[in-house]
Design goal:
It is a single chain. By secondary structure, the protein is α+β, with helices and mostly antiparallel strands. It folds into 3 domains: about 290 residues, BirA Bifunctional Protein, domain 2; about 130 residues, YbaK/aminoacyl-tRNA synthetase-associated domain (YbaK protein, Alpha-Beta Complex), CATH 3.90.960; about 90 residues, Rossmann fold (3-Layer(aba) Sandwich), CATH 3.40.50. Helices cover about 30% and strands about 30% of the residues. Helix 12 links the parallel strand 25 and strand 26. The relative contact order is 0.14. The model has no long low-confidence stretch (mean pLDDT about 95).
Length: about 575
Amino acid sequence: MRQSRHIGRTLREAPKDAQTAAHSLMIRAGYISQLSAGVYVYQPLLLRTLNKISQIIREEMATAGAEELLMPAIQPKELWEESGRWERYTAVDGIMFAFKDRRGSTVCLGPTHEEVVTDILRREVKSYKDLPKCVFQIQTKFRDEIRPRFGLMRAREFIMKDAYSFDADEAGQDASYEAMRQAYHRICERVGYTYRAVEADTGAIGGSGSHEFMVLADSGEETVLYCDTCNYAANQERAESRLEQFPQDAEPRPMEAVLGRGIIGAEKLAEFFKIPLWKTTKTLIYEADDQMVAVMVRGDCDVHELKVANHLNVKVLRLASAEKIRSLTGAEVGYAGPIGLPGHVRVIADHHVKGRVNFECGANQTDYHNINVNFGRDVALPELGDFKLAREGDGCPRCQGRLKAAKGIEVGHIFKLGTKYSQAMNCSYLDANSQTQPVVMGCYGIGVSRMAAAWVEQSHDDKGILWSPQIAPYHVHLIALNIEDEVIRTQAEALYARLQQEGIEVLFDDRPARAGEKFSDADLMGLPVRLTLSKRTLEQGKVEFKLRTEKDSTVLSPDEAVEKIKGVCGIR
């Protein structure tokens, strides 16, 4: 491609609204341009990269046994009502683009395709002999993000690959899931990411288990916790951890309500009572749909609201207002505790609160706290579960190691759906005994446009992007200096033709621009190899060869340059 004909103007300054390196660099390098909030034009350079990422995905989906189709973006409301997800996606989460067509039917632009694919397969599958099945598509998705941000990271329109497996039983689902998990590993490795696959929350998609594929980057929105000893890794939303257990008092002491005027917060309470932080207790009052819930954790922990919401199976979980806390406890905010709460308040506690002797908690009386509290004697042992936020430094839940933290960008998410959609939508089959059984499903998403942005976020420097040869829009940036010179132009055109004949993808900077501008644009665009022709190199019959990832350049003959490019870019 001749750069003089290329669409995608470079910018010297970063846009004011750019919040991440990828957002800024992709706009400055002419890879994307914004049409409206969260909606972007994929300019020619980026489209080439997206096509290469898509090809890698297609090859690995085929290896995993998936067949490609293309489903409609417009979906009828009735399918989403069958699955029971219409209200959540339109009213609760509110990310659905929904509208009425000219016939008065309510439809939506697909944010995901579980309902549609289940409808397709329930017409196809009749017997256990029709299973297993696995299909995938690469298609534009639409989500009405309230605050689209970070460029392609959280856009309202984006390209995604979604795959779906259909099996006769859980053993088949496990095999399909593992095949996809391995395919995702191969995709990430072929692209060249530094990444981790982590256990994750299933969220609005649902199901019994899931993994996220996280590209590690300091600017990532997600926190990944991983063990320094074993292979345990999880998104912080899903992560479990083991807390240190301490020696306990030999005997329970009498419970006592102690005046601590204005003392709120676990650290201040521990200091006031001269007790370790783990002996204090945080009790938070929540509204969970139509019920009130008190959640207890150790004072050295924080409540993980997503874990609480999942345990309670509620749509809305929010901290109770100060007014409601006063009506329930009789006290101001900061003094809530489990003793003496009204009977309709459901009390749940992180399992690490158990086993403590003589602990502290709120007394449900302004300025007062109970000390020397013991379960069984002073208050019934509440409903236990994992309700704390796991953090760096906590013990690993699988071994004696410690958890470390890293920031990550989610590019892929795979789920074991089980029978959530097949039962709701009557996608079933006859087994060998002519008994009707629900199909067991899995779904597997990977963000194609997000993968490109995640690469830039992970691989850039102060000059621009650092593309890998596998997904770079072109292998080589060919630069001709003083191209007005007929000799230089002739030699540059000949080398341009030669590179293309050798199967090397070339962006040829044939513009009559200054050397500094050309080199600056080349660094910004980030193609793996830069070849420069100038009067100096032509006098030697050579060309300057430079890798984008390296500081220094070398002077090579055209033949040597061609062979080196093929080696670097894996061209046969």
